[in-house]
Hints:
Order of helices and strands: HEEEHHEEHHHHHEHEEHHHEEHHHHHE
Number of strands: 11
CATH class of the largest domain: Alpha Beta
Oligomer: single chain
Structural class: alpha+beta
Strand order of the largest sheet: 1-2-6-3-5-4
Strand content: 15-25%
Shape: globular
Number of helices: 17
CATH architecture of the largest domain: 2-Layer Sandwich
CATH topology of the largest domain: Cytochrome Bc1 Complex, Chain A, domain 1
Amino acid sequence: MERPNVLGIPEQIAFNDVPATRRLDSGLVIHALEARHAPVVSLWVWYHVGGRNEVPGTTGMSHFLEHMLFKGTPAHPKGDLDRLLARYGAQWNAFTNEDVTCYFETVPRDRYVIALELEADRMRNALIAAEEVEAERTVIVSEREGLENDPSFLLGESLQAVAFDRHPYGQGVIGSKSDIRLMTRDGLYAHYRTHYAPNNAYVVVVGDDRADTLLEQAATAFAMVGREPVVASPLSPEPPQMGEKRLVVRRAGGALPIVQLGFHTVAASDRRAAALSALAVALAGGGGGDSASGRSSRLYRALVEKELATDVDASFGLTKDPYLFTLEATMRPGVAHQAVEEALLHELARLADAPIDDAEFARVRRGLLASVAFPSDTITWRAYRLGSLLSSGAAPSIGAWYDALAGVTPADVRDAARDTFVERSRTVGHFIPEESGAA
């Protein structure tokens, strides 16, 4: 199928089609793409463990464990990753979200085999020493306290907890401070042995070599890592919400008040996911670094230009299970929460009532497709984007996701708004700043 090339970007620069793929006897799946425009290779190892694999009392364990995987193995003591990679100009890091924990290195081409060796080693051989756990606990508590200084995070975390009755998505990712403080070395190590196995992971590699060569080198590096019995965490499906929920968060400080709305929506594998991504762009803009798309968006014109809010946002994330479509408005001083909430709901109702016109849809479509096409000449981003699409089940390749976005119509956007923005699945959150010392 020939892609609609509405952005004027040569297809061979934008995408590299479907990756070469191999499943090892251990269950590890490796995906490789050739990308010749820079002499580097980007290696990403994805584990199917995140906030959704935790229960009350262990919230934040996947994120805590992510920190511990940089503390060394018997073969590669703490500091080896920096010694073997960073001094050669490599870029490396990790992250944890609701669904996955991921580690990556973007390295000069001749360091690729070393990066593979390091990742294959820490897949099963991390030390997770007790003294390192105690040292890192302080770091993570500090990270948690830093997030708590952000009213948007505080309100969003509370809204997430109220919106979900049963599914672990309601717990967030970083975990409660009490759970972080009570976490033990043995608990972290058990979590590691349970989830860090080749049959619970996949590898994405993009770089300056033939795809089959990149794949073969990865297969050789991980060949000695044996499969393990992976215990699936029990997941309670979230029951349908039966009516609007509301919450208020108050905190002393000089922050501006905030209104957030969360609506239960679909998983990334649902056919409506592309239309929901377009809906987020229609509401708040975004894509390709085009700030003008934000200024022409529905919420900017309705709230920022009318001096009800200083900032607006809309978000639909690609997740394994149904999650939330969220909206946020940071209010101007002196504006009532109810006025901002009503303005938000009015714009959502407008989108659900009728398809957007051709001129507006053209702007939305450009922003939507640019968000995929423009960053794709960065090898690191391409590897991340492919891995995130695979982890969520949104698409088997970047090109397939681009095609899904390109196929969205104005009627699809209207229907997505009608299906999503309903009162019974809505959770409303207000952040109210208080004077210091207020009760």
